Amino acid sequence: ILGVLSQDGMMRFIHIHTCRLLFHMGSHDDAITTVSVSPSGRHVVAVMDNGSINIYSVQSLTQELNKPPPSQVAVVSGGEADQDFSGLKVKVRSEVVQRPARSSGRRTQVKILRPPTVSAAEDKENELPAGLNKKRLVALLKAFGEYPAKYRMFVWRSLLCLPENHAAYSSLTDKGLHSAYLTLHDKYPIKSHKLQRGLQRVLSALAHWAAIFGEVEYLPLVAFPFVKLFQNNPMLCFEVVATVIVNWCQHWFEYFPNPPLNILSMAENVLAHHDKELLQHLVDCGITSQLYVWPLLETLFSEVLTRDEWLKLFDNIFSNHPSFLLMACTAYIICCREPLLLCSQKQDFEYFFHHRNNLDVGAMIKEAYRLMGSTPADIHPRTLLSDFTPLTKGQYPVFNHYPEFIVEYQSREREKIRLQEMEYLRERQEVSA
C-alpha cells in the first residue's frame, strides 16, 4: 500500500498492484501538512493546517475495505478509448435499476459509444502534455459544465502546459523575499500563516522575475486564489499565475499605474453591441468601465463568486481563447442587468462589483459562450489579443510589457521610504536606550 500526500491536503492510500484507491485522510477544509507512520504501521500521525495533530488507526481505516462493492448491472466501455481521458465508464447501480431475480441466459447487447473520427493533423494540434487531448477535454467540459474536482488540478496543469522549471524557479526563490512584500501582512492580513507565507513567496518570485510585479498593488488579489489551490506546490502556483499574467492579462500594464484602458474599452464595445440600454444607463449614472469591468478583472472574479463558482468559471476560461475572460466580464454585467438598472448612485455600483450577488454562474458562462460566437469580428477581443502561449521550458520568458521608467522610479521611491523608516526606527531605539 502506497500513501501519497496530495497538494489538496488529503492523504490517499493506493494499492500498488491494482492501482485502486483504498481510503483517504483529511479534507479540503481540514488539510494535512505533514504525516508520519508509526514503526509498526498501525497508526498514522498527521499535522493539520490549523496546527492540530490527529492520530489515525490504520485498522479502523481499513475496515471499509472488507465491505462488498455496490452491485452493478452493466459497464459500458469504449475499446481503445480506455487508454486516455475520454474512456469514460457508465455504471448503472442497483439503487436505480432493479436487479432481476434470475438471469434469462440471454446476452445483453451493449452499444459502444466511440468518439468521432478526426484527422491526424487536427488531433495533433489538440494534444496536451501527459497524453491528454484538449478537444476531448472541452467536450467533457461542455457535457458536465466543469471538470471533475478530483482531476481539476491535473487538467489545469495540462491545459496551461506548465513547464515545471525547477532550476529557474529555485533561482528566483533563492533571492529571498522581495522588499516590496516584506510587510505584505499589514495590507493583506490572512488568518492562515501558511497561506500568508505562500502568497508572500509567490509574489516575491514574480517581483524577481519582472520588476513591475513589485509595484502592482492588485497583484495579491490576482494571485491569492491560486495560492489557496496550489498551497502545497509553490512552483506550480508561480507558473500558473505567470501563465495567467502572460495570456489572460495581455496589455494590462501598458498604461501602468493606470488601469488598462484599451482592455476596458474592448469589454465596453462588446456591451454596447449586445445591450445598448444597459450601457446607456451606466453612462447616464456617470459609471465608466473602470468601475464596472476593472473590479472584475483585477480580482479575477474572486470577490463576486464563491469558491465552487470560481473554479467552474476558470475551467471554462482555461479551456478557451484568452479573450474569453473579457467575454465573461461582459456576460456577468448582462446577467446582472435587472439589479444594475435599479442602481443610480456611484457607491451602489461600487458595492455591487465588489461583493457577491445572486447570480447563476452557469447562465453567465452560457452567455459568455454566446458572446464569443455572436460578437462581430471588428469588435471581438479575439482579433486584438494573441492566442495562448505557454511558458518556455528551461528558463522563464522575459516580461517587459510595461513602462520601465515609471516602474524604476516607483521602485526607487519605495526603497527610499523603506530606508528612511529603518533610519527613523534606529534613531528611536538609540534615544530610548
Account of the 3D structure:
This protein has 433 residues and is mostly helical. Among the domains are: 59 residues, no CATH class; 83 residues, no CATH class; 123 residues, Cyclin A, domain 1, CATH 1.10.472. Helices cover 45% and strands 9% of the residues. It is built from 19 helices and 8 strands. The strands form 3 sheets. The chain has a 3-stranded antiparallel sheet, with no helix packed on it. Strand 5 and strand 6 form a beta hairpin. Helix 7 packs across helix 9 and helix 10 packs across helix 11. About 12% of the residues have low confidence.
Q: Which helices and strands, and how do they pair?
A:
Elements lengths: L1 E4 L5 E5 L4 E6 L6 E6 L5 E6 L4 E5 H4 L10 E5 L13 E4 L26 H6 L8 H11 L7 H8 L6 H8 L10 H4 L5 H17 L9 H11 L4 H15 L12 H14 L1 H9 L4 H4 L1 H5 L8 H12 L5 H12 L1 H6 L3 H7 L8 H14 L29 H29 L1
Antiparallel strand pairs: 1-2, 2-3, 4-5, 5-6, 7-8
Portion of residues in beta strands equals: 5-15%
Average pLDDT works out at: 82
Major sheet attributes:
3 strands, antiparallel
CATH class group of the domain at 261-383: Mainly Alpha
**Tally of alpha and pi helices:** 19
Query: N-to-C terminal Cα separation, in Å?
Result: 62 Å
User: What is the CATH homologous superfamily assignment of the domain at 261-383?
Assistant: Ypt/Rab-GAP domain of gyp1p, domain 3
Run of helices and strands: EEEEEEHEEHHHHHHHHHHHHHHHHHH
Strand order of the largest sheet: 1-2-3
Q: What best-fitting shape do the alpha-carbon axes yield?
A: globular
Unreliable residue stretches: 71-116, 118-125
The CATH architecture term of the domain at 261-383 is Orthogonal Bundle
Pfam family, one: RabGAP-TBC
Subcellular location: Cytoplasm, Cytoskeleton, Cilium basal body; Cytoplasm, Cytoskeleton, Microtubule organizing center, Centrosome, Centriolar satellite
Organism: Stegastes partitus
Keywords: Cell projection, Cilium biogenesis/degradation, Coiled coil, Cytoplasm, Cytoskeleton, Repeat, WD repeat
